[in-house]
Design goal:
The protein has 241 residues and is an alpha+beta fold. It has helices spanning 5-22, 28-81; strands spanning 102-105, 108-113, 129-137, 145-152, 164-180, 187-188, 191-192, 206-213, 222-229. The protein is 30% helix and 27% strand. Strands 1, 2, 3, 4, 5, 6, 7, 8 and 9 form a nine-stranded antiparallel β-sheet that branches.
């Protein structure tokens, strides 16, 4: 027997209602919850990438500071090792145009060296020069101390003056020098090859360099210390009797 028409109609209506309920979309609350979860995940991902990027940048900055410190101490050591004095002097003071010297205190050193590198083709320059390393204030940041380098390509009769001064290492904490006297075997904070009260006509056997820079990890300083030997400890006196 067939079911009554009214019963079949009611069954079809219930089936259609169940089908529509199964295809129903998200409610507004469900959409808001999904957006909030997605936002939280995005914030977490951004924070992770930001931390990684910041750490990478800090590591590169520290590595660059360490690299600068190593290059600076290596160059100072090389140039100090090439320091020299010359016993060749003009017969009268009026004819003196060049004077060699090695004078130093704990925070500054002035010397003649065979350390110049000619970078301009056909320039009338030799490997001789006057060099200085000393501590000075930064012109733009008065509270900051820098290690400065002075070079005069053509030596004259005024050691320690003239030439071009440039920032060698920026933002340092300490720069100290000590000099080993070959006669006494002791380290001293001062050296003067031009004074009879100092070390007249002599060079130190070794120079100790201490450089402490700012900018290390977690605000800690970068400390480097090295010693260099003078390759020509005696004044040049060739062709002299």
């Amino acid at each position: 027997m067939r079911a009554p028409l009214g019963s079949r109609t009611a069954s079809l209506a219930r089936a259609r209602a169940r089908s529509r309920s199964g295809q129903r979309g998200l409610t507004l609350i469900e959409v808001l919850i999904a957006i909030a979860v997605l936002a939280m995940i995005s914030v977490l991902i951004y924070s992770a990438f930001s931390t990684i990027t910041r750490g990478k940048g800090n590591a590169e900055a520290y590595a660059e500071r360490y690299r600068l410190a190593r290059i600076a101490t290596t160059r100072m050591s090389r140039e100090l090792s090439e320091a020299y004095l010359s016993a060749h002097m003009a017969p009268t003071p009026a004819l003196v145009t060049r004077t060699t010297a090695f004078t130093g205190v704990s925070r500054r050193v002035d010397f003649n060296a065979f350390a110049h590198r000619r970078v301009v083709k056909d320039a009338h320059e030799s490997d001789q020069c006057e060099l200085s390393y000393f501590v000075g204030q930064n012109a733009k940041k008065p509270q900051q101390l820098d290690l400065l380098r002075r070079e005069q390509v053509i030596p004259d009769d005024q050691p320690g003056k003239g030439g071009v001064v440039q920032i060698f290492v920026d933002d340092i904490d300490t720069f100290e020098l000590k000099y080993l006297d070959p006669l006494s075997g002791l380290w001293t904070d001062q050296w003067d090859s031009t004074s009879a009260a100092g070390q007249l006509g002599r060079l130190p056997m070794q120079v100790e360099i201490t450089l402490i820079m700012k900018g290390g990890p977690a605000g800690s300083p970068i400390r480097l210390r090295t010693k260099t030997s003078i390759m020509m400890p005696l004044p040049l006196a060739f062709a002299l009797k």
